[in-house]
Amino acid sequence: MATLFGFASSKTEPKDADDAAATAEEGATDASPTSPQAAEEDDTPLFEAPETEVGAQTSCMHFVARSKLGWIAWKEMEATLYSIFERSFGATRCEMKFSDSLEDFGFEVEVPNTEVEKFKKFFKGKALAQEIDMLHGIDPLTTSRRDAKLVNMKKTLGSTLQETDVRSSIEVLTKRFKALEQVGVNRDREVSAIQDQFAFMQTTMLKRFDDTGARFQAKMEDAVWKKMGAVEKEIRDSVQQDLAVLNMNPMEKQVSTPTAAAAPPPPQPQGIPPALSTAPSAAQLLPAEDPILRQRAETAEETLASVTLERDAARQELQASQRRLEEMRGELAKVSEDFGKLRDVEEARAALAAQFEALNRDAGEMRTERELLRKELAEAQAEQEALNARKPTEPAPTVETKANEASAVVAQTTEPATVPRTDEATAEASSLSEFIRENPVKEKKEPDEVESDPWRESPR
């Protein structure tokens, strides 16, 4: 895994014996409580620093903390650790990073320039390391062991605080988004580092379990076979000595098997005396002649039985070890499955975030289209109102009124010349002439103009 913190020093082995001896002497000097270096360490306790003023120049202090507790303990107390730097040195920014080693943690603490000398002083002393140990539950009054060791301090330029806070809400929101994005990137790095460490530990543990099981099985089998070989050799030697007393060579004579011994005796030929036919064999005469041989045979049987019991016990232990190994493999498989589910959840969360962003973009486009449609609708309404204003307010003469007027004129012409016009005919003629003057005939528009006007009302 690549180093996430650039200031972490790599552990190098000494080149020769002299360098190794010198390194050992330096380590012994550092560990000795009566050494001059230990006596020179400052024991001044930490005290609170004044609040950092707006616009103060800052510096970024980089250092490495070495601990045997593991990253879980440091991650649980991360917020409290940041509060120690904030109260004691007026820190404006704190950040913890992982490295390629499980015992090294990188820190970036941004403090005002007025607190740099104070930070260096307490970094070299005991107070800061003791505060971190007390934070993790290691009290210096009850135990002399120190866990946290602060090394490799570097100093770089920091960021200046803003003098005013009159920025718009959009700028503040953008800055917060960037900060959250940086936090998400750091969390992704931490998760990837934890997954790499878990994969390495899983591989190491499985390999160690396999090696232990194979070594245990080989050792048990070798021990059992060696003991069985020794017992077999001892029994053979004892039986050969017993048979040598009777001048019997087991390599030349056929040894009776348990099946042959249990079988009935063959029929004796006729003519042989019963005394000769019932003569005891060498195996029947052996226990009767020498009780020591019987005792040795019983001892050999007891030894063989004990060896058999030990072998059975060893086999049972081996089977129990194999069962425990299978159980541990099952637990590891469950842990791997849980990590797989966690990865699925992370992928689902990322997919939902992408869908949410796509929906936000679509909503923005729809809002823009809605505004454009509203503008076009307003323009269309304005044009329609203008057209309505230009239309005549009085109704046009219908066909019936014109027909009535024409019939009246025809009737007037058909009357005799001696008959004078009535007042009604005169009034109708005057009203017709006035209507024609008030409503002149308008020219019809060209078909192209009518078709080109999109807002013209269709004739009813």
From TrEMBL:
What is the official name of this protein in its record? Uncharacterized protein
Residues covered by region (Disordered): 1-43, 254-278, 380-460
Q: State where composition is biased (Low complexity).
A: 20-31
Compositional bias, Basic and acidic residues, is annotated for: 435-460
Q: Where is the composition biased (Pro residues)?
A: 263-272
